[in-house]
């Protein structure tokens, strides 16, 4: 199921600088959630396993099945929406996974996703949006009129924005030193820009569901260092040092105020 992925050049430098002990593994098949039976195979490649433990009281009564499984007692890696590269700190050392769905993607883009994951591991960020929100996940659900799937999608987007606030400065600083990774980071942001211009209007008219709009705008925040990408309202309020510092408390209050305005 797993095969060590060799790194060289800028990626090797990135791992050495940010997450030197981290294993990078190619996976034999795509996965959304890595089920416990397969996850246990990691035990052959790492020194130890420390499955995440989620208190029952963190979750509302009605949540999507993958989230309930992730929060359960079995060792589970990943959540739907994690994309082609995901990582875990439930192993010692941490592991970054590269899924075969990326086999047709341009190499610079895959390298950017890998570098991003290594920087996230090095920043000691929460592994998932559930670890990020913790007991405030219930508060987020209560602050919105969204169904459980919508809360899931919004929470995942808000987590992406929070991580981006902590990683984007690193990428911006790579201009000139790690040019290929820097260029891939800039290019990924530029590809999002045409979809951002009318996003606020689309939400107001009901043409785009709020969680989907949040997913797009929060992804753009990862590339908005030094004003490189303009984030539309109401998501621009997440592009702030206050969010970077206070995390879930800020996110829940932002969601509450945002939906109050949308309901008027």
Which labels suit this protein?
two-stranded antiparallel ribbon; 264 residues; DUF7089; alpha+beta; 4-stranded mixed β-sheet; 8% strand; single chain
SSE arrangement, N to C? EHEHEHEEEHHHHHHHHH
Low-confidence stretches: none
| Number of extended strands | 6
- Strand coverage percent: 5-15%
Pfam family, one: DUF7089
Written description of the protein model:
50% of the residues lie in helices and 8% in strands. The longest helix is centred in the middle third of the chain and has 25 residues, at 148-172. With 264 residues, the chain is α+β, with helices and mostly antiparallel strands.
Write a concise synopsis of the structure shown.
The chain is α+β, with helices and mostly antiparallel strands.
